[in-house]
Write a structure and sequence with these properties.
mainly alpha; 3-stranded antiparallel β-sheet; two-stranded antiparallel ribbon; 6 helices; 5 strands; about 10% strand; elongated
Length: about 160
């Protein structure tokens, strides 16, 4: 997540155990860490100093090569996730942001009935909207039979 000076929170992504975060900062030397991580439960964090993996050597070893391939794959996946989030955020209204996000989740999970990884406040923070406006829009959309939901379980009829 990223917080501004006034404490407004923007959730960039929700990670699962074993996933990486702040990998860009591990590569970009001398950058101030501009993101925070919050966990729902206890966690252990492993920090990598990527300098030795990125330094050119006469004979690159298999470990360094595999580490760089893995890192490139993670960065590519994160880029795709941020691109999807940008698509949601550039929608003009709360309804359009919700429909964009729910549609993408449905496609990603391959079904019209699915769970999202966010509670209401987290979803509002992820989409950059007010929680009460988000809840009101969800209720309207359900009354109009565009969607049905119960907490974080959604169905797109």
């Amino acid at each position: 997540m990223k917080e501004d000076f006034w404490g407004n929170r923007n959730i960039l992504a929700k990670l699962q155990p074993g996933e990486l975060f702040a990998e860009t900062y591990a590569i970009a030397a001398h950058q101030v860490l501009g993101v925070s991580v919050m966990t729902d439960e206890g966690a252990t964090v492993l920090f990598f100093h990527m300098g030795e993996f990125l330094a050119p050597t006469a004979e690159p070893d298999r470990l360094s090569g595999q580490m760089l391939r893995n890192l490139l794959q993670v960065i590519t996946q994160k880029n795709l996730q941020l691109n999807a989030k940008l698509t949601h955020l550039t929608q003009r209204t709360t309804r359009e942001k919700l429909l964009s996000y729910l549609s993408e989740e449905s496609l990603r999970q391959g079904r019209s009935e699915f769970d999202i990884p966010f509670n209401r406040q987290q979803l509002a923070d992820y989409l950059g909207v007010d929680r009460s406006a988000l809840s009101a829009e969800l209720s309207k959309m359900q009354k109009e039979k565009l969607i049905s939901y119960d907490r974080n379980h959604f169905n797109l009829p």
